[in-house]
Amino acid sequence: MKHIRMPLFVWFSIVLLIAVAPISLSAQESFIQKIEKNNSVSGIKSLDTSRFPEKYVMYLTQPLDHRHPEKGSFRQRVIVGHVGYDRPTVIVTEGYGAAYALRPTYREELSDLFDANMIFVEHRYFLESTPEPCDWQYLTAANSAEDLHAVRETFKALYPGKWISTGISKGGQTSLLYRAFFPDDVDVSVPYVAPLCYAREDGRHEPFLRRAGTEADRKKIEDFQLEVLKRKARLLPRFEKICAEKNYTFRAPLEEIYDFCVLEYSFSIWQWGTDIHSIPEISASDDILLDHLLAISGPSYFIADSPTLSFFVQAARELGYYGYDISPFKPYLSIKTSKDYLRRLMLPEDLKNMKFDKTLSKQIVRFLKKNDPKMIFIYGQNDPWTAAGVTWLKDKKNIHVFVEPGGSHLARIGTMPENQKQKVMSLLKGWLEE
């Protein structure tokens, strides 16, 4: 048999693989061994990732009520993207479930920008972090902040560098309240598009929508809403058929749900920055008009037993929400009022008597006024949630508010104009280097 000479570069590749593999394995064992020293951690498992050197999912045992641990416990899902023990750490205060962070390609913006470790915390009462049985009395902002503090305590010895908390939307709201409850847990907070509502129907969103965009934009939106209401008798049968095919059930008659979809339309189209030019002309066919309505504000939002029920419970109890201005549409609506729709449509019968507690919003406002922690708030100019943002904060040295011109609920550092982006990055770099 003829001897085949192996190319030199192949030999180098083999030597390199032999040298690197034990290091990688050793690092993996090292991380797992270190984190498993904490008795509250269980079920740690390595995840596939193309964005971190190592990535894991694990569970922390948390008290249902941090003030009364004897009440029981639940397991909270935490996802860790590990870069290095000497790197900064970003704790993502997710307001909902964490399933999307399991994707191999996922990496949170700040962790990516600063090559930082990522600790992604699923919110209590969502997906795999839901207690059994599901006792709603323990779903409070105070308990969620305590959860995050416990996560921070679990990892602080492992990651002794700078810590940044961040979250988007309800997650940004969670990052804000976490800072208010535990101001010294992190060095920097970056809440994205985070509302701070004062009531179950806050009252600032409706006038905000009457100012969003241009007058021509607002007219096009309202004309569309009026047209689908005027054609309701023709569109409702197909609307009903679609709901039946998807097995949707509601806590109100179907015609009322149709009306609420129309009322939700203006909020939704501005929230997600949908191109106003995509709105069909009012002369368009029935199918085109209904398809567009369903794409922007479909009935799944109002279904009974929504997968986001936990959020609606929190909104009704202490986080607050928004209302609707029905005045332009009254002649065409089957409902006489939209007041208290969150309680009527979103909450199960056993929670309908829940009262809204303003204590949390007052506590956070007081904290922001009296203190000046290192925080960067990012909002979109046309996002209706900006109506309830902390854009009123002025004359602070360390708290900075950036509003992306023309931006939506998708406003991020990466979407900002270059001058804003540079200011944000300069602040963050300076704080991380202190």
TrEMBL record:
Q: Which UniProt keywords apply?
A: Aminopeptidase, Hydrolase, Protease, Signal
What InterPro entries does the entry give? AB_hydrolase_fold (IPR029058), Peptidase_S37 (IPR008761)
> By its UniProt entry, which Gene3D superfamilies does this protein fall under?
alpha/beta hydrolase
Q: Does the keyword Cell inner membrane apply?
A: no
Alphabetized GO MF terms: aminopeptidase activity
Keyword Cell membrane (UniProt): no
SUPFAM superfamilies xrefs: alpha/beta-Hydrolases
Q: Do you know which PANTHER family this protein is assigned to?
A: LYSOSOMAL PRO-X CARBOXYPEPTIDASE, PROTEASE S28 PRO-X CARBOXYPEPTIDASE-RELATED
The name on file for this protein is Aminopeptidase
Source organism per UniProt:
Bacteroides faecis
